[in-house]
Q: What sequence folds into this?
């Protein structure tokens, strides 16, 4: 499964990159799901003649899935709804574009977004066929598995991008 970049319509740049990283952390705990490694995504972009740091939109994700023979892709978005945030996740058949499963969660504040993302991802794992005992066993809450602060997560994301640029 390929994880696309989140669509962020909040206007708050702190969510850029951090939500994808947090979702990857949650999904990588699953013995049932197999995420396409970021290194293979970047390599596929190179072979496609595109910059390695290109945003992985839904269309680009689908192209990479076809090229890498990945069966599904996962898209996500965050939008503001007054003072609340709505997080949407969708697993999509990469070959047909058909929806496999969707999940949505609402957060009352920016500080609760990671908790809401965690809840949505856990629910999506079940919808994708992972058993409840497996989800419960392999689901360290994101707040424990990552930094609970978006500023901290954004800082980690920036350091990772700089390290990647020096390779």
A:
């Amino acid at each position: 499964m390929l994880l696309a970049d989140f669509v962020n319509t909040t206007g708050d740049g702190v969510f850029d990159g951090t939500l994808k990283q947090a979702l990857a952390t949650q999904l990588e705990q699953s013995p049932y799901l197999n995420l396409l490694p970021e290194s293979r995504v970047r390599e596929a972009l190179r072979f496609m003649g595109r910059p390695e740091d290109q945003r992985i939109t839904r269309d680009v994700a689908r192209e990479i899935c076809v090229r890498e023979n990945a069966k599904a892709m996962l898209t996500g978005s965050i939008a503001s709804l007054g003072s609340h945030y709505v997080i949407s996740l969708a697993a999509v058949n990469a070959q047909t574009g058909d929806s496999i499963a969707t999940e949505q969660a609402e957060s009352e504040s920016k500080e609760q977004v990671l908790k809401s993302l965690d809840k949505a991802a856990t629910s999506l794992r079940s919808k994708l066929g992972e058993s409840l005992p497996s989800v419960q066993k392999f689901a360290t809450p994101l707040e424990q598995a990552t930094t609970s602060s978006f500023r901290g997560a954004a800082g980690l994301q920036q350091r990772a991008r700089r390290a990647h640029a020096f390779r």
Observations:
- The longest strand covers residues 72-81.
- The domain at 2-165 is CATH 3.40.50.10610 (Rossmann fold).
- Helices lie at 18-27, 38-47, 58-68, 113-127, 132-137, 142-145, 150-165.
- The chain has one domain: 2-165.
